[in-house]
Amino acid sequence: MEFSKYFDHTILKADASSEDVNKIVREAIQYNFASVCVNSARTKQVSSMLIDTDIDVCTVIGFPLGAMSTMAKKMETLTAIEDGATEIDMVINVGAIKDGDWDLVKEDIEEVKEVCRNNTTGQEAILKVIIETCLLTEEEKVLACEVSVEAGADFVKTSTGFSTGGATAEDVALMRKTVDAKTAALEKETGKTWPGVRVKASGGIRNYETAKAMIDAGADRLGTSATIAIVEEHNK
């Protein structure tokens, strides 16, 4: 895979202006990144600029806390898809994880996945579930990944980048191992082929060395605002 296609070129800061977002989109086109990742209010702006490119529009949902109601996440997801989003990065319900309410956690993901799958556009959007690793115990990380696989996630993602910590290679390796094992177990249990679940690392990835460590640990996608510096360092 072309190195640039590992990256979701990201701008999520609250004070990002329209021109800031336009600049990110122009950079994504120039460097041929996998997607541009923005808050939902910027989805239509980004999608209008990426027509006739192979660059996806990635919108964050329930961001950055994940503490919104499932209905709110569903409506935000639907609006984002109608505005042109082709990838949805939703924040898991971290509070429900801490309550041990795994049924609620799973239902939250399943409901958003249903909107990704069946919506007014007729196009299915990719769903990434942000588990916010810095707030979880190792056991919770494993269970969050397993529940995400069961609920139909296409990716599990480490972090929002807006909490107490970001991605680590150790967490990426744990997530990779967990989703692969869970997929294999579900295939054995059901006798059916289960879609492979990928891993996205995000939060604190600011140089090529860190990016490479994440990929080596099993990341299929990287989310960062330092994308250009990383790619240019790689290309030296």
Textual characterization of the structure:
The chain contains 9 helices and 8 strands. It has 236 residues and is an alpha/beta fold. It has a single domain, classed as TIM Barrel (Alpha-Beta Barrel). The model has no long low-confidence stretch (mean pLDDT 97).
Uncertain residue ranges: none
Please report which band the strand proportion falls in: under 5%, 5-15%, 15-25%, 25-35%, 35-45% or over 45%: 15-25%
Radius of gyration based on Cα positions: 17 Å
How far is it from the N-terminal to the C-terminal residue, by CA? 18 Å
The 3D shape can be described as: globular
Mean pLDDT reading: 97
CATH topology: TIM Barrel
**Protein structure class:** alpha/beta
**Which architecture name does CATH use?**
Alpha-Beta Barrel
The CATH top-level class label: Alpha Beta
Strand arrangement in the largest pleated sheet: 1-2-3-4-5-6-7-8
The total tally of domains equals 1
| N-to-C SSE string, H for helix and E for strand | EHEHEHEHHEHEHEHEH
How many helices? The count is 9
The counted number of beta strands is 8
Helix content: 40-55%
Fourth-tier CATH superfamily name: Aldolase class I
Major sheet: size, sense and barrel closure? 8 strands, parallel, barrel
